[in-house]
């Protein structure tokens, strides 16, 4: 089997030693390159042979033709969504959600949201098929078939709209669409939410000293390759976080569903580029791509916990 060598040093580090308290020697001092070849995965989930994202047609020229929601007080919407949503339900809900965008955002080309979490595993057709095939042949594997929410990164969405369009309340407008959709389908208010933003790492550009969102930046610099959904009317695009950030975030939470998702993601890398995974290789991969997670500050106990999960 051909094994893809990682682009960063693969020699044992202090973190590979039993007495290590940190692994700062592997923390990249500069912004890591985002060349797709730097990952054991293809440049996109869709490059694995999945069907193209939902229709990527241009927005309608007559914006007024999009359905416009009526006035709403948002009454009766529970704060938490307890309804399980499968792939078909997500697509149906997102199609409606996209129809509300023109009324809230006016004459804009498109809303782009970077998303993460379990919804990505469902919206990406190839990953969903791989999960189904794995569950059918491995009695221990449990396929994720539903999710209760879509996680999106609000902080960078707000910043992008403020800088590009001068819209300072973009996330508030988006939340109006989220609530209207919750009303329409009997969902909880957090069926789409950015609650995880507070736990996502930020990074500093060493050249400018400016803070930036490394997860968002890695996703949008891949062009359309990580797009997992485009609405039929063209007003909404969902872009997944990169495979390495997906694994890194799931390694932190690490509930049973996350463990299954990680296995599917790593298996997709194996199938796409004949990657032979070992705990050490996984460790090096995360250190080289997701250094902004602050791995250098991990104490001995957190290092042991990460290794047990690997």
Please describe what this structure looks like:
Residues 41-81 are annotated as: Disordered. Residues 58-67 have a biased composition (Polar residues). By secondary structure, the chain is an alpha/beta fold. It has a domain at 51-242. Helix content is 39%, strand content 8%. The chain contains eleven helices and seven strands. It has helices at 87-99, 101-105, 118-123, 125-137, 154-165, 170-185, 214-220, 243-253, 256-273, 279-289, 300-309; strands at residues 111-116, 150-152, 192-193, 203-204, 211-212, 227-230, 236-240. A hairpin with a 5-residue loop joins strand 6 and strand 7 (236-240). Helix 1 (87-99) crosses helix 6, helix 4 (125-137) crosses helix 9 (256-273) and helix 8 packs antiparallel against helix 9 (256-273). The relative contact order is 0.21.
Write the layout of secondary structure elements.
Elements: H1 87-99, H2 101-105, E1 111-116, H3 118-123, H4 125-137, E2 150-152, H5 154-165, H6 170-185, E3 192-193, E4 203-204, E5 211-212, H7 214-220, E6 227-230, E7 236-240, H8 243-253, H9 256-273, H10 279-289, H11 300-309
Parallel strand pairs: 1-7, 2-3
Antiparallel strand pairs: 1-2, 4-5, 6-7
Helix pairs in contact: 1-6, 4-9, 8-9
